[in-house]
Design a protein that fits this description.
The structure holds 2 protein chains of 2 kinds. Chain A is built from 10 helices and 10 strands. By secondary structure, chain A is an alpha/beta fold. In chain A, strand 9 and strand 10 form a beta hairpin. In chain A, helix 8 crosses helix 9. By secondary structure, chain B is mainly alpha-helical. In chain B, helix 3 links the parallel strand 1 and strand 2. The longest helix of chain B has 34 residues. The radius of gyration of chain B is 29 Å and the shape is elongated. The chains are: A alpha/beta, B mainly alpha.
Chain lengths: 246, 396
């Protein structure tokens, strides 16, 4: 479960997030949508305890991001915009390394690595150095890294970016399966169709503010749009920047 | 609290990546080998220099020798291989001789008339060989001049030493071994420390600011690891690689000294003072410990590897500058508190330890103060790494 209440973040004079509130319950995928620079990544980084909130609060898996950062980090799997793989190490070595940081038994991590490689389709690259992998395969390994310790909460920033149709479809299957096993999945994406397919709930952030929060159907209905894509375009164009409101 | 088993896992991962980097392996293995060869050459050169003081023969070009056979004969007795020739200026420039003598055409005539007979010492290059030959020639001509003066005084019925009211002798009580130790003490720490710091700077910059550039640190920051555990792991890696490079380079250099020229007359002329090598090893370990902590601090605070290298690179120069500036200062002239200055203290210990002139307790002062600097610097690095600015830099 993720609960965000009046969360704000400013970088000197720049307001990145301006008092957002939403919840992402377990057992479903919550889409986190918005245009570039809307505040999605900053919010995700606060939830991952990489940044501290300027105001407001947030809890992840029951832990406060400000007061129990280490417990939060133990409970999350984070996929960032950059794959951030170690080029000189193989996917197997990297996944085992990250698994070991959660004090999991080596045999369990090894089994989990094999499972994820098979599910995400990078078994044949498991023992090849990451520096030689294509962008899509690197993305698969980065997704596996977020899942390797089987965390109750997943924070995924553009997980299908760079994946071909088959791989993206396989990943969507994995995410649905993770959600069905009572995990909380917060999925940041630009792709309306992907959100419509996967997400039971959608939070739309524009210029650091939440402008819509509901099911895809509710958002389409409330904006009197034909589909989610049109609804999102309408919402993103309607909201003026924070500076314009001051 | 630090969970050392997690620190070990992070360090292990770094080691694995570093040791897969070809340039690091080349630097670690090939470079000390080159130093071994270099030190073998240097050692032989030193030994030869010591031996040369008694046996070297300098090639000497002489122009205008026709009217001065007595002077030429004298110079041949003073370890000069005399080549009587013309146009010494061109030949000096061509490197045919390290030094030349231009004799006034009226040399013998002037000598006979007891007038000043003019000669010019000429050099065509600035080299150690040329300078040694020039100094030796000047000394020989002074001796010849004194002999001529004695003869003139005797002819005038005066005692031959009448023109020399004071007789000065230079007496050096140091042994050739001590002189060699002093020369090595000035050279070896400079080379070893430059080598080690060069490697450490690259590694520290790469595993701190370099990871920010590559965005690999973001995933690590999202794990249960604490910032201080990550910083500690990176310091351990830098420290270990520095110590390894130091051990290989110093060991190789000392091994080269021990092996080259062993059992020969000149070889036995060079020997480090007892405990000098151990003192140098301790000092280099102290330098590596403090510098690795400083470099980790800079790397964690820097925005990028490039920015880190801008701040790290001058550290090497700053560290070794005092060694160069101190020149021929003896260790006994350096007060004990100087050994407490970070980086500089250990480097002075390395030099004076090898010379055998370090003051009593210098090793203890250097070790204790270096440990204090390491702890203080790592505490500051932890503070910097926990600040949001450092994290922002890491995650963009």
């Amino acid at each position: 479960m993720i609960t965000v209440l009046d969360l704000a973040k400013t970088f000197r004079e720049v307001v990145a997030v301006a008092g957002v509130s939403f919840t992402a319950p377990p057992g479903r995928i919550t889409g986190f949508l918005g245009s570039n620079g809307a505040g999605k990544t900053t919010t995700m980084r606060i939830l991952a305890t990489l940044l501290r909130p300027s105001a407001g609060s947030a809890t992840v898996a029951g832990y406060d991001v400000a007061d129990s950062a280490e417990d939060v980090r133990r409970s999350i799997g984070l996929l960032t915009e950059e794959t951030g793989l170690y080029d000189k190490m193989t996917p197997r070595e990297q996944l085992r390394f990250f698994g070991s940081l959660y004090d999991l038994p080596a045999a369990r991590v090894a089994r989990r690595v094999d499972e994820l490689a098979e599910t995400l389709g990078f078994e044949e690259f498991l023992d090849r150095r990451a520096g030689t992998l294509s962008k899509g395969n690197r993305q698969k390994v980065a997704v596996a890294r977020a899942l390797v310790h089987d965390p109750p909460v997943l924070l995924l920033d553009e997980p299908t970016s760079g994946l071909d149709l088959v791989a993206a479809s396989a990943l969507e299957g994995v995410l649905t399966s993770e959600a069905l096993s009572a995990k909380t999945v917060l999925l940041s994406t630009h792709v309306a169709e992907e959100a419509a397919r996967l997400c039971a709930g959608i939070v739309v952030i524009v210029h650091g503010r939440i402008v819509a929060d509901g099911t895809p159907q509710e958002i389409v209905r409330d904006t009197e749009s034909l589909d989610l894509r049109t609804a999102l375009v309408h919402l993103m164009n309607a909201e003026p920047p924070i500076g314009a409101q001051l | 609290m630090i969970r050392w088993h997690l620190v070990g896992r992070v360090s292990g991962r770094h080691f694995r990546e570093i040791l897969r980097e070809r340039k690091t392996i080349v630097f670690l293995m090939i470079s000390p080998l080159l130093f071994v060869i270099l030190f073998m050459i240097v050692r032989d050169e030193l030994a030869n220099q010591i031996a040369d003081q008694a046996t070297a023969v300098h090639s000497l070009g002489v122009e205008g020798s026709k009217g001065s056979p007595e002077l030429i004969a004298f110079l041949r007795t003073q370890r000069f291989s005399v080549v009587e020739t013309g146009d010494v200026t061109t030949k000096l420039r061509d490197g045919e001789f390290p030094v030349a003598l231009l004799i006034d055409v009226a040399f013998d005539d002037h000598m006979a008339k007891e007038l000043p007979a003019r000669v010019s010492i000429m050099v065509g290059e600035r080299s150690v060989k040329s300078e040694l030959a020039r100094a030796h020639l000047a000394s020989a001509l002074n001796t010849y001049s004194e002999l001529a003066l004695q003869r003139r005084l005797q002819r005038a019925g005066l005692p031959k030493d009448a023109g020399r009211p004071i007789v000065v002798s230079n007496v050096d009580v140091t042994t050739s071994r001590e002189r060699a130790g002093s020369m090595l003490g000035a050279l070896l720490p400079l080379i070893v420390v430059s080598q080690v710091l060069g490697l450490m700077t690259g590694i520290a910059g790469d595993i701190t600011a370099g990871e920010k550039d590559r965005r690999t640190v973001e995933a690590l920051l999202a794990t249960p690891l604490r910032r201080r555990e990550i910083a500690a792991a990176k310091w351990i890696v830098t420290l270990s690689m520095g110590l390894l490079a130091g051990a290989l380079t110093l060991g190789g250099a000392l091994g080269a000294f021990a092996l080259s020229g062993a059992g020969t007359a000149v070889g036995s002329a060079i020997e480090l003072p007892a405990g000098g090598a151990a003192m140098a090893a301790l000092a280099i370990a102290c330098v590596v410990a403090v510098m690795s902590a400083v470099e980790i601090l800079i790397g964690l605070a820097a925005r990028s590897a490039q920015q880190a290298s801008v701040f790290m690179a001058p550290l090497i120069g700053l560290a070794i500058l005092p060694l160069i500036l101190l020149g021929n200062t003896s260790g006994s002239a350096v007060a004990a508190p100087i050994y407490a200055i970070p980086i500089i203290g250990p480097l002075l210990l390395a030099r004076f330890g090898m010379e055998g002139t370090a003051v009593a307790g210098a090793g203890t002062i250097t070790t204790i103060t270096s440990l204090i600097y390491v702890v203080a610097t790592l505490a500051l690095a932890d503070r910097v790494f926990r600040s949001e600015r450092a994290i922002q830099r890491a995650v963009g």
